[in-house]
Amino acid sequence: MPRTGKQRTPLSEWVRSFETLFGQQQQQLIGGRKNSTSTVLPNPDDYLVPALRVASSLADQICKAEEAGFQSPKPCSDWIDSIVVHLQSTNSEDDHFDRKAAEDDDDSFDMEKVFHSILTEGEPSSSEERAGEGGEGGNNIRVEILPSLLFNTSDNNKSRQATDGTLFSLGIVFYEIFSRGERPAELSSNKTCQNQNGIGELCEDLNSLPFDQGGIIDLEGELSIFDNLLSEYNLSDDDSIVYDDVVFQGQGPRKKRTQNGNDNICSVSVEPLKAKGLPRALCDLVANMVDCANGTISKDETYQNMVEVRNDLQLMLDKPSIYLRDQDMGSLSTTGLHIGHTVFGRNAELSTMIDAYRRSVSGGESELVTIFGTSGTASRFWRGKPFSALASAFDQYCGILLQNCQLASLKQKLAHQVNYVLGNGAYHLTKLIPNLAKVLGLERNCINHDEDCINAQNRLQYLLCRFVEVISSTFAAPVTLCLDDLQWADSASIAAVNQLLLTGGLASQNTKFFFLGCYREGETDNYNPLWNALCNSDLVNSRSTDVKPDCMDEETLTTMVSETLCLFPRLTQSLSSIIYHKTKGNPLFMSQLMISLSKDGLLRPSLSRGRWEWDKEKISCQKLPDDVAEFLTHSIGAQPEDVKLILCMLSCFGASVDNAIIKTLEKALDRNLVDSLDVAVSEGLLDNNKADDQYCFSHDRIQEAAYNMMNFLDRCDFHFSYGMALAPFTSEKEDDSILLTAVNQLNLAGPEAVQEKSQNAIIANLNLRAGKKAMEMSDFGAAYSCFDNGISFLRKKHWKEHYTLSLELFNLAAKCSLTNGDIVSLELLSQQVLRESQSFEDKLNLLYFETCALAYSSRLAKSIEKGLDILSKLGIEVQGTNVEARVQETKDLLSAHTDDEILNSKQMTDPTMIIAMKFLGKLEIGMTHLMPKSVLYVTIKIIELSLTNGMSPVSPLGFAYYGSYLAKQGNINKGYHYVKLALSLLDKVGSRENVGEVIFVCTQVKSYVEPLQATLEYHHEGYAAAMASGDSSQAILNLLALNSSSFFAGENLQRIQEQCDITIQLCEERKQVIFMVQAQQFQRSSSKLIGTGEEPKYSSEGRDILASNSSVLRSCHYHTAYVSFIFRSYDDAIENIEKYFALQETTWGNLFLAHAYHAFYIGLISFWVARKSREEQQWYQRGNKTKLALKRWAQSSQWSFENKWYLLEAEESFCDNDFDAAKTYYEKAVSSAKSHKFVHEEALACELAAYFYLELGEINKSVEYFLRAHERYHEWKTHSCKYLRKRSLPR
Fold first, then answer.
1. Average model confidence (pLDDT) across the chain
2. What are the CA-CA distances from residue 280 to residues 47, 275, 326, 533, 571 (Å)?
3. In three state form, how does the secondary structure of 719-757 look?
């Protein structure tokens, strides 16, 4: 059983026990005692921790007594005789150690155990105990002061004298504690001892002093307990009598002695403490306490009260490396002052960020934290490769997995998940993240990066988001990404972060992502995608937290100065006050000022005192600029010329420069740069970041100051000279950083800096290469900048002198303009190319970009007209008059080839034919919307050219549309055959350019053959494939199809609502207005069914589309009629269904799933209206027409359409008054819907059957079906739908 042991030991005995045991163990070890288990000699420094705790406890008790107005000890030089140490420990009986018994039995005496018990005396077991609150577990120490030392503090006649005396008296106690029992030599001559017996048991029954306990204290009542104690132990309450230390365990009692009431407080030296090797800070603490009496040390450092002593002791305990241990002043006198990276005064900000991270970990939701501060005046520099900010972070992550053998299993797990989720898309990431190729076990030179991508930047953004999702799901933890200086980060990284923060697709829903970004306030603008995301909180699927650190207050700055100089705050207060008033608390200004003071000798290390010292008067008189930028400029100007030059040179490259660039510049300029860099590092202006192998400015404001020291013309000359110096080294294939850096420098210099005519073409070529590299990395913004700069360096006659170079620059610049949505630049570039091109074939790329731009700007008619005109000039005609004849020719052509022959056809190689196929592919989707009857001609032409000239990336699209056409004509099985062939052909052509559109078209046909629920996954794949290929339009189209198919399949309404929200947000981000309008219609229908009843908020452009596009408006009327039918709102239903029929029906050339569902619900509404309307025959015929269509489709897919056909048969029989047939078909419809997992249509069939039986007067049967419908509707939606509340069961 555990028991609690209490030991009360005089403080003098407790102090000497360490010295005794230490000496005994030394002898034991030296003597080579055989039975000793000790292997380590005790370190005298280990005594400092418990000794400091005892000292801190004493100071704390006196402070509490003085603060409460209670009694405090009377000043004298022998306090240690009247202080008792209480030890309390909880141990098991077997482990209880009896020191006296151990000493009596030499064989059992274990010195190491005793040594350990002393070292752990008073060691707290919790942070609360360390704060002086005590605790019950472990070992606790408490110090008591005997009542003989007490006097009333209410007597203030000699308060200053009493304070000085108290500080002096406690200083003597500290002297004896830290010297391990030695008294100051100055006091030993005054000590007179007398024998006194019977003291040994004094501490056994002493209670704690009143101020050690909480609550209200009755002084007279509490102190009366000491009367009996004094009498029992033969102690006097006479203040003129004090007691020496009480000695226990056989050493005999100490003697009582009498001293004069006016104790002679004499001067005391702490040199013996220094001789023992005690830390200087501790020696100075004791000296500053006894200085209250002897005044030998500066009054500025003398303790003024006991609170200062307690605070300093606590700092020694809390931060011994700063406030206790000696500093290497010899080294500091050589290296000077260094400012650390500790964060001061940001507890609230740090707490906010930590809380955000914890929410991300525990809640599983993404979090966004941004830290922003005052802006500067720096120019923006291109920060290396596109995606460099993100790529470097993820590359380091993969590098950690590769280097740490203990993470091998995690590496394999990640590799498996990456291959499973990303598939071939992972190859594209390896160009960004080289270490990922090693994780996946791929050789980089064997990786084929497919560059034929509609929008490669969208592709890589999507792949990066999926990569984040894989990491998060694999390790079940949020992916934490921290980026500094966002205002300077490359645009591709910012765009990728933007996509991670936006709800950009289904994949992002389960991603736990924590982003911490820092940027300068005022240097992100409305054109920055991150800024747009931060400003549009509705688009962000992450909780956002803004943190704006302010300048330090004076108290925080005092702490910073204190810890930097390793001196107590009370000692640095005067210096801190001066620095605060000069810097206003600006952290950068403060650190640079302290470094400057150190260099000027106004703040210097003192070898004699072992600490920092300063000249307060001179520092106060020093004149400083008001702005930190001016101060930094002045500081840089004071450097040697070679250091100033290297700082200006580095500032031309931005906030950091790779060592590879430095070494290359050394070769090119034939001069040593590292020596000057090292001097700048020693001055605190630069950091040598060995982890990233680069030099970087200690703060971006230093880089600004260095850059602004040069005038504009000098900057241009420097940029140009550095760019040209790096140019010869840009041919290295392994690393593109030198090429990109050289081009950046030359572009910052501008064409005016060119010195020789021959240099223009060289720089233009470098920009062409750099732009291509940027395109490979999918940064079309940076790529366009390179091409545009390359064009600006060309001379006036460049089309004649450098035609090939000019044509390539203009073509690629136009492609980037199209990708970036910069139509104005595209038009300007096109005008020059069309005017200067030497052949029609040289114009084709620009003409194709123009055609795409027209389509993207909703001018489809103009785009189609232009495309047809260009194809005509290439000799390709797609118009015709006899559709049947063209279809038959295509059938004959295809019949001459087997599927295997088609799949193994040659690849198309003719450049003109390849671009012609691109025009046909663009016409395919455009004409589907505006000229559906003519789409077939385009489809046939694609198939013909593919079979005669070889397969191109557009070929699968032709076969997909051909299969869709055959299915629309009623031959679903044949159409199904060709869409499967189109999907197989995707892998054969080796391009994923049109994969999203192919999957969409093919899945629409598959929905008429395969179970509808099984086809939902195809649209997931189509979305992912389209995003991976950078085709956001087709990605959204697949999302729309997924929404509608999920709705038709009876998926949970809440989930459908969420999918619609995601689709609308993506449409808004990618400015796909026509798709957004369609998504809003599905969102309205689902919200009405759920019960929220939200109406869509169409944009002005969306309203224009509804007004001008009959197909979209017709769909809108269908959705409104559907909801009205479900709510049994007859008038609304008939009004909207008539508007639906009033609009001219688009004769679609292809089959879509919406055709079946429009037919199904139009048929149900038609039969309902037929039973109520005077125009019964017209509505009956409409219903009958849709019933026959559903019957045909049920033959191709019994699973998806049988229950719908049965329900239409039941409604028709109801109209015909064939009640027996109606009963049969209603039951079949219910049974078929249940068997094929269409819960919503089972509910609908039950509901319509209930109305049927209600009409017949069969109430019980009607109630049965109503209840069943109610159950199924609840199953469709987890809580009751609004329309259920509008129903009432027949009574």
1. 78
2. 16, 10, 6, 56, 14
3. HHHHHHHHHHHCCCCCCCHHHHHHHHHHHHHCHHHCCCC
**pLDDT at site 627:** 67
How far apart, in whole angstroms, are the C-alpha atoms of residue 877 and residue 947? 17
Helix ranges (H only) for 1049-1175 are 1053-1070, 1073-1090, 1100-1108, 1110-1126, 1130-1142, 1153-1172
Tokens of 637: 């100007």
- Taking alpha carbons only, the member of 53, 12, 242 closest to residue 150 is 242
Residue 101 structure tokens: 């018994």
Q: Are 1241 and 1207 in contact (CB under 8 A)?
A: yes
Residues 6+ apart with CB under 8 A from 1011: 1197, 1199, 1200, 1236
Bridge partner list, 611: 606
Asked if 387 contacts 779 with a C-beta cutoff of 8 angstroms, the reply is yes
pLDDT higher at 1249 or 87: 1249
Q: Tell me: pLDDT of 799 over 60.
A: yes
Please report where in the chains the tokens 């959204």 appear, as a residue. Answer: 1036
Residue 1214 pLDDT? 96
Q: What is the DSSP string of 1029-1059?
A: TT-HHHHHHHHHHHHHHHHHTT--HHHHHHH
Q: Which residues, in sequence order, are bridge partners of residue 688?
A: 695
Q: Sign (positive/negative) of CA torsion 399, 404, 405, 406? A: negative
Identify the H or E element spanning 372. Answer: strand 367-373
Angle at 817 between CA 812 and CA 819, to 5 degrees: 95
- Cβ-based neighbours of 224, under 8 Å, separated by 6 or more: none
pLDDT tens digits along 326-335 = 988 888 888 8
Q: How many CA atoms are closer than 13 Å to the CA of 1073, on its beta-carbon side?
A: 15
pLDDT of residue 441: 84
The residue with tokens 């004090």 is 242
Other C-beta atoms within 10 Å of 252: how many?
Answer: 12
**Distance of alpha carbon 636 from its chain centroid, rounded?**
36
Contacts 24+ apart (CB under 8 A), 1151-1154: 1151/964, 1151/965, 1151/967, 1151/968, 1151/972, 1151/975, 1151/1004, 1151/1005, 1151/1008, 1152/1004, 1153/1004, 1153/1007, 1153/1008, 1153/1012, 1153/1041, 1153/1044, 1153/1045, 1153/1048, 1154/1044, 1154/1115
List CB contacts of 33: < 8 A, sequence separation 6 or more.
none
pLDDT at 495 over 80: no
**Number of neighbouring beta carbons within 10 Å of residue 1095:** 10
Give per-residue pLDDT as tens, 678-710: 888 887 788 887 767 889 887 777 888 889 889
Tokens of 167: 């500080």
Residue 5 β-bridge partners: 89
- Contact criterion met (CB below 8 Å) for 445 and 388: no
Check whether 233 has a pLDDT greater than 90. no
Give 873-884 as a DSSP string. Answer: HTT-----S-HH
- How many Å apart are CA 921 and CA 185, to the nearest integer? 102
Instruction: State which H helix or E strand residue 142 sits in.
Output: strand 139-145
Considering 13-27, 250-264, 903-917, the range whose residues carry the highest mean pLDDT is 903-917
User: Quick one: tokens of 118?
Assistant: 């002393």
Who wins on pLDDT, 302 or 1208? 1208
Q: How far apart are CA 823 and CA 829, in angstroms?
A: 10
What is the rounded CA–CA span in Å between residue 671 and residue 4? 76
- Cα(689)–Cα(681) distance, rounded to whole angstroms? 10
Pairwise CA distance, residues 432 & 277, whole Å: 57
